[in-house]
Write a structure and sequence with these properties.
The complex is a heterodimer of chains A (about 300) and B (about 300). Chain A contains 12 helices and 2 strands. Chain A is mainly α and about 300 residues long. Chain B has a two-stranded antiparallel sheet. In chain B, strand 1 and strand 2 form a beta hairpin. In chain B, helix 1 runs parallel beside helix 3, helix 7 packs parallel to helix 9 and helix 8 runs antiparallel to helix 9. Chain B is globular and about 60 Å long. Chain B starts with a helix and ends with a helix. At the A-B interface, strand 1, strand 2, helix 10, helix 11 and helix 12 of A face helix 1, helix 3, helix 5, helix 8 and helix 11 of B.
Chain lengths: ~300, ~300
C-alpha cells in the first residue's frame, strides 16, 4: 500500500516537474543558458511612419542591476534529484491545498506562508511559486490600504522575485509574467515614491518602461474573451496614468541632469505606448509636452552657462 | 547636449505622429520639420553619427506622409525620393547594426513614394471647396459673443492659473461660445470650431492641474462628443463636394482621410474620459448615459 502511494505521489510530481519521468526515475535537467533581462528595445515600424526609439530609457540610466533578476545560475542544489519521502510529499501537497484554500478566502499573507512551506520542500515547483507571487502582491496591496508602505514594499519585492524564479524555471518570460512584473514595478515605484527614494523610484520606472512595449502592445499567448481584453486594456490605461504620476513626482524632487533626461525618455516611452497601443491621446500629448518642456529647460540652461 | 537634441527630435517626431493620427495634419508637418532641423543640426556637429542620419531620413518619410495628407503630392514625392535615395546610400555604408532599421525605413519610404506618385499621376488637384478641410486654416469667423455671455478675457485678469476650477469655468465660457455662433439671429454655423478648440485647451489645463476633476472630465467629454458629431457631418459634406469636383471615389476618400482621423480621435477621447469618470465615480449617471449614447450612435467605432 505504501509503495503504491509513493509511486502515485511520484507520478503526481512528474506531471509538474520536467525533471521526472512518469516511472518515477529522474533525469538530468538540461543546462539552460542563464536568463538575462530581455532586450525590449526593438524599433517598431508602422506603415509610412516610424517610431524613434533611438534614446530609450535603458540606455540613459543604468538598469543592469535590475533587482529581482535572480536565479540566473542553476546551481548544483537545484539540479539535485528530488528525493522526498512519502510523508514530505504528503506535507507538500497539504500545504499547497491549504494555500489554495486560504487564497480563495482572501487570506493572502497566510496563503503565502503555506506556499512558502511547500516551496521549502520543492523549490522547483512552479505552481506554488506562481501562486505565492500572487499572494505577496495581494498582501502588498492590502498593506497599502492600511498605510503600511514598508510592508507593502517588501511584499512586492518578494512577489517580483518569485515571478523571476518562475520565469527562470520555465526558461522564458511569457506575457502573463511580464504583465505581472510590469504592474509590480509600478507598485514598487509608487510605494518608494511615498517614502521618498527618487533613485530607486527611477530604477523601478525604468524596469516598468522596459516591460511596457511587450506587455501593452501584445496580447496573452492564450485565448481571451473580449471582456477580459477590455478589462486588461482598462487596467493598462490605469497603469499608464500611475506611471505618468510617478514620472511627475520625480520631476518635483529637483532632479539632476541624468535623472531629468531619464524622466524625459520615460515620458516619451510612456507617451508613445499610450498613443500607439492604447489610444490615450490626451495623456500621450501631455507626456510629449512634458518631455519637450524638460529639454527646452535644459537647452536654455546651457545657453546661460555659455553666457557666463 | 547633443544627445538632448536627438531626444528632442524624437519628442517632436512622436508629437508629429500623434497629431497625424488625430487629423491635425498641419501641426504634424510642423513637428516633423522641427525634428528634421534638430537632426540636421546634430548631423552638422557629428557627421559620422549613422543613427542620427537614419532617423533623419525616417523623419523625412513621415514628412512625406504628412504632405500627402495635405494633398501636396509634389512635396510628398520630393521628401520620399530624398529619403529613399539617402537611405539606399546609407545602407551601403553604415555598420551592420544599423542596417535593419535603415532597411525598414527604406521599405516605408518606397511604399510612400509609390502612393505619392500614384496620386501625382491622377492629376487630382485639391478641390477648392468653399469650406476648408483643415480647421486651423478656416476663414476667421465672427468672434462676437452672444449678449448674455460674459467676455472670457474678463475672467483672465482675475483667475489663478494654478486653479483647475478656474480653467474649467473658462472652458465652459468658450464651450458656450462654440454652440452659440449666431449672426443676425440666424445660425450661420452648426458649430464654432475655433471656440471649441479654445475650450478644449482650457479643459486640458484644468485636467493637468487636477486629473480627477470630474466636472472638467464630463464637460470635456460632452464637448468632444459634439465635436465628433460636427466633424462627422463636416467630413461627409466635404467628401460629397470632393467627389463632385475630383470625380474619383478613391481620391475623395483619401482627401477626407485626415478629417476622419480627427473624428475618430474625438470619439475615442470622449469615451476615454467617460471611462475615467466611471472609474472615479461609478454612479455618475451622466457618464453612463453619454457612453451608452455614443455606443448607440457609433457602434462600429466604439468597438474598434
Amino acid at each position: 500500500m505504501f509503495s503504491w502511494i509513493q509511486s502515485r505521489l511520484r507520478w503526481l510530481m512528474s506531471s509538474n516537474s520536467p525533471n521526472h519521468k512518469p516511472d518515477g526515475s529522474t533525469r538530468c535537467r538540461e543546462q539552460r543558458p542563464a536568463l538575462s533581462p530581455p532586450d525590449f528595445q526593438v524599433a517598431e515600424f508602422q506603415i509610412g511612419t516610424y517610431t524613434d526609439l533611438s534614446d530609450s530609457l535603458v540606455t540613459t540610466i543604468d538598469v543592469t542591476a535590475s533587482p529581482g533578476w535572480i536565479g540566473t545560475e542553476i546551481n548544483a542544489e537545484k539540479q539535485k534529484p528530488l528525493e522526498l519521502t512519502a510523508d514530505e510529499m504528503a506535507w507538500h501537497l497539504r500545504m499547497c491545498i491549504e494555500g489554495n484554500q486560504l487564497m480563495d478566502q482572501g487570506r493572502f499573507s497566510e496563503a503565502a506562508e503555506a506556499f512558502s512551506k511547500a516551496i521549502d520542500l520543492r523549490p522547483e515547483f512552479p505552481d506554488a511559486l506562481a501562486k505565492r507571487s500572487i499572494c505577496y502582491r495581494e498582501s502588498g496591496d492590502d498593506a497599502i490600504t492600511v498605510g503600511e508602505d514598508s510592508t507593502a514594499y517588501q511584499a512586492f519585492l518578494r512577489s517580483r522575485n518569485d515571478v523571476y524564479r518562475f520565469a527562470d524555471l520555465q526558461g522564458s518570460l511569457d506575457w502573463t509574467q511580464a504583465d505581472m512584473l510590469f504592474a509590480l514595478e509600478i507598485r514598487i515605484a509608487q510605494t518608494l515614491s511615498r517614502t521618498g527614494r527618487p533613485s530607486e523610484v527611477l530604477d523601478a520606472c525604468a524596469a516598468a518602461c522596459r516591460l511596457l512595449q511587450p506587455v501593452v502592445e501584445s496580447s496573452p499567448e492564450t485565448e481571451i474573451t473580449s471582456e477580459e481584453r477590455s478589462f486588461t486594456r482598462k487596467r493598462h490605461r490605469a497603469e499608464m496614468r500611475n506611471l505618468r504620476d510617478i514620472l511627475l513626482w520625480l520631476l518635483k524632487n529637483e532632479p539632476d541632469l541624468p535623472t531629468l533626461l531619464a524622466v524625459c525618455t520615460g515620458c516619451l516611452n510612456v507617451g508613445r505606448t499610450c498613443h500607439t497601443a492604447l489610444k490615450m491621446f490626451d495623456l500621450a500629448e501631455e507626456l510629449f509636452d512634458r518631455g519637450i518642456d524638460i529639454l527646452m529647460r535644459l537647452s536654455s540652461g546651457r545657453t546661460r552657462c555659455r553666457g557666463t | 547636449m547633443n544627445a538632448a537634441w536627438s531626444l528632442q527630435a524624437r519628442a517632436h517626431n512622436c508629437r508629429g505622429l500623434l497629431f497625424q493620427e488625430t487629423g491635425h495634419t498641419n501641426s504634424a508637418a510642423a513637428e516633423f520639420l522641427k525634428a528634421v532641423k534638430l537632426r540636421q543640426r546634430r548631423m552638422e556637429i557629428i557627421p559620422q553619427d549613422f543613427e542620427n542620419q537614419i532617423y533623419l531620413e525616417g523623419t523625412y518619410c513621415n514628412l512625406g506622409q504628412a504632405s500627402l495628407d495635405l494633398w501636396e503630392t509634389d512635396n510628398a514625392v520630393s521628401y520620399f525620393v530624398r529619403s529613399v535615395d539617402t537611405l539606399n546610400d546609407l545602407i551601403a555604408r553604415c555598420p551592420h547594426s544599423f542596417r535593419q532599421i535603415a532597411e525598414a525605413f527604406l521599405r516605408n519610404g518606397e511604399q510612400g513614394l509609390l502612393e505619392a506618385r500614384k496620386w501625382q499621376a491622377t492629376n487630382c488637384s485639391p478641390p477648392e471647396l468653399a469650406d476648408s478641410l483643415f480647421f486651423e486654416e478656416a476663414a476667421p469667423m465672427s468672434d462676437s459673443l452672444p449678449d448674455a455671455m460674459p467676455d472670457p478675457s474678463v475672467v483672465d485678469g482675475s483667475m489663478d492659473p494654478a486653479d483647475a476650477n478656474a480653467w474649467y469655468l473658462k472652458g465652459m465660457f468658450h464651450s458656450g461660445r462654440a454652440s452659440s455662433a449666431i449672426a443676425g439671429g440666424i445660425h450661420i454655423h452648426a458649430f464654432h470650431f475655433p471656440a471649441a478648440m479654445e475650450a478644449l485647451a482650457c479643459f486640458d489645463k484644468s485636467q493637468r492641474i487636477m486629473p480627477s476633476h470630474v466636472k472638467t472630465l464630463l464637460a470635456k467629454a460632452r464637448l468632444l462628443t459634439r465635436l465628433a458629431r460636427a466633424t462627422d457631418a463636416k467630413s461627409k459634406n466635404l467628401h460629397h463636394g470632393a467627389l463632385r469636383k475630383m470625380n474619383n471615389q478613391e481620391a475623395s476618400d483619401r482627401y477626407v482621410l485626415p478629417i476622419r482621423r480627427r473624428f475618430h480621435s474625438y470619439l475615442l477621447r470622449a469615451e476615454e474620459l467617460l471611462e475615467q469618470v466611471s472609474a472615479i465615480c461609478p454612479t455618475n449617471a451622466e457618464s453612463v448615459l453619454l457612453k451608452a449614447t455614443l455606443q448607440r450612435e457609433y457602434p462600429d467605432l466604439s468597438e474598434s
